[in-house]
Task: inverse folding
């Protein structure tokens, strides 16, 4: 059983590396794929890296390798939240997004100071005194709390998105992916919480099962992302918003577009044309009394999407 577990970790590790290279280097995906996907895959890769090195016996199976994996686990929830928001809002990475990794930075400094710098001898003394297990519980509690809060924030964002656009044909695959991925993430958090709760009955379970639960959840996440990436190759792409220069022939002003957006919102709420899955762009343009280019400009500049 341990052999199968180790092989699954190795497989997910190399698969995450392959996906990072594909989405970062391949001309088909480079510059068009959400950078938050690469960020999430990077967090998973680092999380599995420490375990792979540990299994392979590198660095004398140093306990510090395990700590590196656990630090990467703190990035999990924030990366998923940013991926969901990026796909919904059709935007890339901005400097202000880095604030979401502040908990990881603080956690890394605390863990490095307490676990890595002191060395094995100090850790053993702390373990024998019972101090170490208290700090481990505190760290695991913090990790669960941060990841659950980001998962909740991502779900709230999705529900707001689905209420407004769940019937929009161009968003259906993306919406389904987000919903299912968040359900998978919720199941992962539930497993973490259950393991944490059971550890109060058997303390050794915290160090044994909890880490396996973390690594297996990272492994399953890679498989899920890979599955959807092959099922819908464009699912992680950010649709580039057309620049205004493309619409130099259009006579609509910014104020006109704002009015049309309000008109479109009212029309969608009252008439619900999106229920017609065979709706054509020309039909929608006629309903709004617009020509096709003006409708395309409205969707690109004010909605941030294309009509498919």
Result:
């Amino acid at each position: 059983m341990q052999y199968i577990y180790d092989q699954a970790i190795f497989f997910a590790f190399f698969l995450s590396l392959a996906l990072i290279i594909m989405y970062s280097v391949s001309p088909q995906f480079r510059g068009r794929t959400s950078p938050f996907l690469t960020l999430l895959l990077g967090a998973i890769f680092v999380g599995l890296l420490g375990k792979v090195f540990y299994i392979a016996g590198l660095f004398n199976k140093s306990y510090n390798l395990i700590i590196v994996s656990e630090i990467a686990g703190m990035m999990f929830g924030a990366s998923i939240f940013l991926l969901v928001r990026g796909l919904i809002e059709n935007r890339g990475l901005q400097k202000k997004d880095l604030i979401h990794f502040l908990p990881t930075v603080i956690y890394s400094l605390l863990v490095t100071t307490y676990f890595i710098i002191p060395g094995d001898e100090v850790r053993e003394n702390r373990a024998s005194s019972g101090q170490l297990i208290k700090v481990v519980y505190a760290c695991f509690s913090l990790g669960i709390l941060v990841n659950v809060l980001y998962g909740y924030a991502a779900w709230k964002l999705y529900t707001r998105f689905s209420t407004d656009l769940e019937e929009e044909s161009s968003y259906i695959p993306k919406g389904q992916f987000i919903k299912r991925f968040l359900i998978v993430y919720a199941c992962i958090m539930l497993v973490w919480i259950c393991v944490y709760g059971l550890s109060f009955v058997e303390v050794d379970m915290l160090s044994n099962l909890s880490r396996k639960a973390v690594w297996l959840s990272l492994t399953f996440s890679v498989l899920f992302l890979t599955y959807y990436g092959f099922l819908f190759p464009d699912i992680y792409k950010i649709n580039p918003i057309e620049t205004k220069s493309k619409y130099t022939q259009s006579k609509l002003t910014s104020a006109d577009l704002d009015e049309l957006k309000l008109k479109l919102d009212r029309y969608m709420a009252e008439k619900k044309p999106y229920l017609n899955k065979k709706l054509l762009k020309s039909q929608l343009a006629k309903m709004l009394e617009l020509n096709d280019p003006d409708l395309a400009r409205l969707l690109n500049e004010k909605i941030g999407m294309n009509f498919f």
